[in-house]
From TrEMBL, chain A:
Keywords (A to Z) from UniProt: Membrane, Transmembrane, Transmembrane helix
Record organism: Streptomyces cyaneochromogenes
UniProt key word Membrane: yes
TM stretches of this protein: 32-52, 93-116, 156-176, 188-206, 246-266
Protein name: Succinate dehydrogenase
From TrEMBL, chain B:
PROSITE patterns noted in UniProt: 2FE2S_FER_1, 2FE2S_FER_2
Stated family: Belongs to the succinate dehydrogenase/fumarate reductase iron-sulfur protein family.
Protein name: Succinate dehydrogenase/fumarate reductase iron-sulfur subunit
Keywords: 2Fe-2S, 4Fe-4S, Iron, Iron-sulfur, Metal-binding, Oxidoreductase
Signal peptide: none
Every 2Fe-2S ferredoxin-type domain range: 6-93
Pathway field: Carbohydrate metabolism; tricarboxylic acid cycle
GO CC terms in record: plasma membrane
SUPFAM superfamilies in the cross-refs: 2Fe-2S ferredoxin-like, alpha-helical ferredoxin
UniProt organism field: Streptomyces cyaneochromogenes
Cofactor(s) essential for the protein: [3Fe-4S] cluster; [4Fe-4S] cluster; [2Fe-2S] cluster
TrEMBL record, chain C:
Keyword field: Coiled coil, FAD, Flavoprotein, Oxidoreductase
Any coiled-coil regions, as ranges: 517-544
Family annotation (PANTHER family): SUCCINATE DEHYDROGENASE 2 FLAVOPROTEIN SUBUNIT, SUCCINATE DEHYDROGENASE [UBIQUINONE] FLAVOPROTEIN SUBUNIT, MITOCHONDRIAL
SUPFAM superfamilies: FAD/NAD(P)-binding domain, Succinate dehydrogenase/fumarate reductase flavoprotein C-terminal domain, Succinate dehydrogenase/fumarate reductase flavoprotein, catalytic domain
Source organism, top-level taxon: Bacteria
Gene3D superfamilies: FAD/NAD(P)-binding domain (3.50.50.60), Fumarate reductase/succinate dehydrogenase flavoprotein-like, C-terminal domain (1.20.58.100), Succinate dehydrogenase/fumarate reductase flavoprotein, catalytic domain (3.90.700.10)
One Gene Ontology molecular-function label: steroid dehydrogenase activity, acting on the CH-CH group of donors
Native organism: Streptomyces cyaneochromogenes
Residue span, FAD-dependent oxidoreductase 2 FAD-binding domain: 10-438
Cofactor(s) recorded in Swiss-Prot or TrEMBL: FAD
Region described as Disordered: 307-327
Name this protein carries in UniProt: Fumarate reductase/succinate dehydrogenase flavoprotein subunit
Length: 276, 256, 655
């Protein structure tokens, strides 16, 4: 009957000597690896794509659209954009792609985001790969010491994410311009405008659904009853926050798509279909 | 009513050693895994040790691992498995085993003692407490906890690292800290106890890497990570890493 | 053999449910070193199953409520058989006990102005139940558990040890209350000297020596097949007290909760909270009829709505309408459901329909009855927001219990023994109102702890001694199942040991079928015969394996208690030739005013306290009738004459 007494391995974790003697690191029978594998693949794909695009330093402006990777564009080597978000703060000494300057902020925001932390701790670091599946590391100190203790600065990236989202909103407004070079005017719209609209809605939803935002808006209060407006806001953000993961992915995809759309138009693969 | 024979593997043994034992056992319509364990006791293994109590998912006694996932035996319906599947039942793997499916959950009781209790406000007597529903909602969610300790079992911080046990209170008791910190009348700060600070300094909040397994296994559906642990992390940031908030609270004295 | 570990305490509390923990807190706060022993893990007590709320006349929801009204409801619910002084203390003290919980961190649902919200419940005139959704019992147990931890933290600060003044022995079972005589150390003395217990995990025996023992072990439901009670409810405290020489009171009164789940079979009996009806749920039979309107008894005619329209209006406007009959006391509703099913108007799985889905929007149901929603979804695959539940009566609570002094909770006849909670009798008379159990736990738990501590303090210098002989006897009794009888004279191959699980199933079937919700003389006589047979077979209950966490052994030991208690229920039920509250006789279908002031006391037939009797002819229990004290006039004056006439005998009325 019995499959035999297993010797105690005492090699730590679930194989610690006093625990039930089971040699398998886990006994899950479902496809537990699917979720972390998909997460890792998705993130990896974005990293590869965004690295290529960020360092490409080309094909990021096709009037009236500016790629969200290059907005605001803060160096002298930026392509000139019509009333676009290029402010030459860095001057001419900046030699590489101007995307690098600004991408630090969304990158930091997403890197320290409570959802993305879960995603890459599970997907890349396998700490843990899935629930009740033993992680491969001998030691674990979590976010108690450098460098991971820096995750606690998430809210500063959130503060920074608001102006960035503001500028992308400005870009989206600019996407309603069009016409000919001589007669460049408001009141036009193309497929790109639609792409930008979807993207900016998702960017805002993701930004506002942030856990730090939820805390700052109302979560830190002890008595909601004394702050009815903040309580309402907290409830509303709480509803968004419940979909933080979904919004994180949706906005990641949409920002890449918006950039890719600009790339396609700017590199001349096709012309932006104009609606009016 | 249709019944069938199911194949089970149940871990039997004690701290000296043990292994998975094979059983074939009858299963009837509507039964849960605990019913099957009871049938094994009554017919094949009278001394099979298992902890259980209410059999309705309210007491949190019958925690175990079924096919490698931490679950309540009484709330896992047999209908979630196919008839061909071999169902493996083991004790919780984060705690020392006592016998068969029973583990020593003393870790949790030790941690419970380390969280300072509710501090009643000095100026209010019994019957004078006034609290608004919206102010108690958050802590009430955490008080739904039935202390099944599945979250403590699944949390890799202690499951995979025995050496972290002294420093880390686990999701259940970090949630307890959050519950008290969000209690509208808790007067801990008046006595010099800052729960936001001690969450990090004494209960090991920093070990949590918010990978959400606690939330996934919670049979009460408490959003442990989103509603307790992350808000607690943010509160700790207020105290320890946010000079603006820190300064503000020094000037205002009270952040209500 | 006396190598059994011994420890000294002032007060030992057996049971860590609401009553036990409240007693322990009180005893410790009054300076007694207190130990708590419980069969499960600390915090897992059966109290968590209480869903509805704590009845206390705080008048938060209706300003007309006060302790007198609560007292009146309790007496009516119990059909005037209540130990009236207990009902009075209970009604007076319940609000303080609830408010006290808030100072220990409890978070009840709130009213608009921030006070404790109170909800309607069967038999209560006003909304009176302090509650937390439908998990009030959990809130109560957690609050008391956390208060105990808070006291231990204080002790740690002072003495360096969490357990110096208050210790919880979890997963331990008491098998005997030990007694010492005042004169010497002969076995079977007169006053309490401690308890004999074993650790379930290791099987190790130990003795806690203490002058005071509080029994707070809860009920007896596991003697019945369909029950809302957990495995712990094996009548341990009832049996321990009986074996220690204390009488049990009115054991025939067993409450069948009207609404337990009936399907699937594995969850049959699990409770469906009364709040479902309190919040608007209605009972219908297979013809779709709200049948409760046909079952309003005469004594309640003026208090309940006559039409569905009036009943429905009551939820909004309780001052000008009468409540719907779904909210009659539990015994009435349980009997009505039973009759409907018997008449062939039941649901497919032998219950009736309890419907909230057509009464409230889905979202309201999910908010107000979250654990019911959860329970049906997970266990029966039924969405209660979309379809009706199937429910039927389930054994829920025993009103009978250890006979106690009302003010002190002291068990009659055994100095040093106290009882509180479900295990104590008297408080609820013949039928308990919903919500009165949680308040009972708190009120009398506190009183038991208080008087046990005082009693112990008065005997600080003359602690009763525990004799080795008594300890050895108790140890031998506990070890019996490991050496179950083999061959018996006259039989060649001998008889194999009995399987304790089989014995338990037969006992449950017997009690369910023969001493269940509707009782008949012949069936109860049959039950007593069967119990005698089971008792003899239980002597041979044998177990395999060793003492370490062995459930077979634990059950074999619990059988003694269940058999003792079952006999008490059956004998008392046979004796009482009337129907009242939780006791319904088909052959005596009406309430008889002559029985109003009669208590039935069960005592051990063999008071030497030897091992369970082996003679199948002679039972273990003797019954004694006792006339109760008349109700105090000022309390009687709270009722109308016309109402009293229905309950009290002529001579009681004109005293």
């Amino acid at each position: 009957m019995a499959t035999g007494t297993e010797p105690h391995l005492n090699s730590g974790g679930v194989r610690t000597g006093t625990r039930a003697a089971i040699s398998a690191p886990h006994l899950r029978t479902d496809r537990w690896w699917l979720a972390p594998a998909a997460t890792a693949a998705g993130l990896l794909a974005f990293i590869v794509y965004s690295t290529w695009r960020a360092f490409a330093n080309a094909d990021y402006y096709a009037a009236p659209y500016v790629s969200p990777f290059y907005s605001p564009c803060l160096a002298e080597n930026c392509e000139p954009m019509r009333a676009g978000p290029n402010w030459d703060l860095f001057g001419s000494w900046w030699g590489v792609s101007p995307a690098i300057i600004i991408l630090i902020f969304p990158l930091g925001f997403r890197l320290t985001c409570y959802y993305y932390r879960k995603a890459y701790y599970r997907g890349f670091w396998m700490s843990p790969p899935a629930c009740a599946v033993a992680e491969p590391h001998k030691k674990y100190s979590g976010e108690t010491r450098f460098p991971l203790i820096l995750q606690n600065i998430h809210r500063y990236f959130f503060y920074a994410a608001i102006p960035v989202a503001g500028i992308l909103t400005y870009d989206t407004v600019l996407a309603f311009r069009g016409g000919t070079d001589e007669n460049y005017e408001w009141g036009h719209m193309g497929l790109g405008t639609l792409v930008f609209l979807v993207n900016i809605v998702l960017i805002w939803a993701y930004t506002l659904s942030c856990h730090s935002c939820r805390h700052i808006v109302g979560g830190k209060l002890k008595h909601f009853s004394k702050h009815p407006v903040r309580y309402k806001a907290w409830q509303w953000i709480g509803k968004l926050n419940a979909r933080h993961m979904l919004l994180a992915w949706a906005s990641l995809v949409s920002v890449a798509l918006a950039d890719f759309y600009v790339y396609l138009v700017a590199s001349g693969v096709f012309d932006d279909p104009r609606f009016f | 009513m249709s019944s069938y024979e199911a194949r089970f593997k149940v871990w039997r043994g004690d701290v000296q050693g043990g292994g998975l034992e094979d059983f074939e056992v009858e299963v009837n319509d509507g039964e849960v895994v605990l019913d099957i364990i009871h049938r094994l006791q009554a017919t094949q293994a009278p001394d099979l040790a298992v902890r259980w109590n209410c059999k309705a998912g309210k007491c949190g006694s019958c925690s175990a691992e079924i096919n490698g996932r931490p679950r309540l035996l009484c709330m896992t319906r047999m209908s979630v498995f196919t008839r061909e599947e071999t169902i493996t039942v083991t004790p919780l793997r984060a705690f020392p085993v006592v016998r068969d499916l029973v583990t020593n959950v003393g870790f949790n009781y030790d941690k419970a003692r380390q969280v300072p209790a509710f501090v009643p406000p000095a100026d209010l007597g019994p019957g004078e407490y006034r609290m608004m529903q919206e102010d108690v909602d958050r802590s009430q969610e955490f008080r739904k906890c039935i202390e099944c300790f599945l979250c403590q079992d699944t949390c890799h911080v202690v499951r995979d690292h025995e050496e972290n046990k002294p420093a880390f209170a686990g999701p259940r008791f970090l949630m307890r800290v959050a519950e008290l910190d969000m209690h509208p009348l808790d007067a801990a700060s008046e006595t010099g106890l800052d729960r936001k600070q001690t969450a990090q300094d004494e209960h090991g909040l920093g070990y949590c890497n918010i990978t959400k397994c606690c939330t996934e296994v919670c049979p009460e559906g408490i959003k442990i990570t989103d509603n307790a642990l992350i808000p607690l992390k943010e509160r700790a940031v207020d105290r320890k890493y946010d000079p603006l908030v820190w300064l503000g609270s020094k000037i205002m004295r009270r952040s209500t | 053999m006396s190598v059994v570990d011994r420890q000294e305490w002032d007060v030992v509390v057996v049971g860590a449910g609401g009553a036990g923990l409240r007693a322990a807190i009180e005893a410790r706060e009054r300076g007694a070193r207190t130990a708590v022993i419980c069969k499960s893990l600390f915090g897992k007590a059966h109290t968590v199953m209480a869903e509805g709320g704590i009845a206390a006349a705080m008048a938060n929801a209706n300003e007309h409520d006060n302790w007198q009204v609560h007292f009146r409801d309790t007496m009516r619910g119990g059909k005037f058989l209540n130990q009236w002084r207990m009902a009075e203390l209970h009604a007076r003290e319940a609000p303080d006990r609830v408010w006290e919980l808030e100072t220990w961190g409890a978070l009840f649902d709130r009213t608009k102005d921030g006070r404790i919200s109170q909800r309607n419940f069967g038999g209560h005139e006003y909304p009176r139940l302090a509650h937390v959704g439908d998990r009030t019992g959990l809130e109560l147990i957690r609050t008391l558990q956390q208060k105990i931890v808070a006291l231990q933290q204080e002790d740690k600060k002072e003495t360096g040890d969490y357990e110096s003044r208050l210790k919880v022995y979890q997963e331990c079972t008491v098998t005997r209350i030990l007694k010492a005589s005042d004169s010497g150390s002969a076995a079977g003395g007169s006053r309490v000297s401690g308890v004999f217990a074993y650790d379930r995990e290791t099987g190790r025996f130990f003795v806690l020596e203490a002058p005071s023992v509080v029994v707070a072990t809860g009920g007896i439901g596991k003697s019945f097949k369909v029950t809302s009670n957990s495995w712990e409810y094996t009548g341990d405290g009832h049996a321990l007290a009986l074996l220690a020489g204390a009488p049990l009171l009115n054991m025939e009164f067993v409450q069948f909760h009207p609404t337990g789940m009936v399907w699937p079979p594995s969850v049959k009996g699990i409770l469906v909270t009364e709040s479902v009806r309190g919040d608007g749920g209605v009972l219908r039979n297979s013809e779709g009829k709200r049948f409760m309107f046909d079952y309003i008894p005469d004594v309640f005619k003026e208090k309940y709505a006559e039409s569905e329209e009036e009943g429905d209006r009551w939820y909004e406007d309780p001052d000008n309408n009468r409540r719907p009959p779904e909210l009659l006391p539990r015994d009435e509703v349980a009997r009505a459901i039973n009759s409907e099913v018997k008449a062939g108007r039941g649901s497919p799985h032998g219950g009736v329909f309890l419907d909230v889905s057509t009464r409230m929007p889905a979202e309201v149901i999910r908010r107000r009855l979250p654990s019911m929603y959860h329970q049906f979804k997970e266990l029966a695959d039924v969405d209660i927001t979309a379809e009706a539940m199937e429910v039927g009566p389930t054994c829920h609570y025993v009103m009978g219990g250890i006979a106690v002094e009302s003010d002190t909770a002291a068990a009659r006849g055994v100095p040093g023994l106290y009882a509180a909670g479900e295990v104590a009798g008297g408080m609820h008379g013949s039928n308990r109102l919903g919500g009165n159990s949680l308040s009972d736990l708190l009120v009398f738990g506190r009183r038991a702890g208080w008087h046990a501590a005082e009693y112990a303090a008065a005997r600080a210098f003359e602690r009763p001694e525990v004799s080795d002989l008594e300890v050895d006897t108790a140890a031998a009794e506990a070890l019996r199942p490991f050496s179950a009888e083999g061959p018996v004279g006259g039989e060649e191959d001998g008889r194999p040991p009995e399987n304790p699980y089989t014995l338990h199933q037969e006992l449950q079937q017997t009690m369910n079928d023969l001493v269940g919700i509707i009782r008949r003389e012949g069936e109860m006589e049959q039950a007593l015969e069967k119990l005698a047979e089971l008792r003899v077979r239980a002597r041979r209950a044998g177990v395999e394996g060793h003492r370490q966490f062995n459930p077979g052994w634990h059950l074999a030991l619990d059988l003694r208690n269940m058999l003792l208690v079952s006999e008490c229920v059956a004998r008392a039920a046979l004796e009482r030739t009337e129907s009242r509250g939780g006791h319904t006789r088909e052959d005596h279908p009406t309430m008889d005013r002559k029985w109003r002031n009669i208590n039935l006391l069960c005592r051990l037939a063999d008071p030497t306290g030897g091992l369970a009797a082996t003679d199948p002819e002679r039972g273990q229990i003797d019954l004694v009738r006792e006339t109760t004290d008349p109700v105090r006039p000022d309390l009687l004056a709270l009722f109308d004459k016309e109402e009293l006439v229905k309950y009290l005998a002529e001579e009681e009325l004109y005293q």
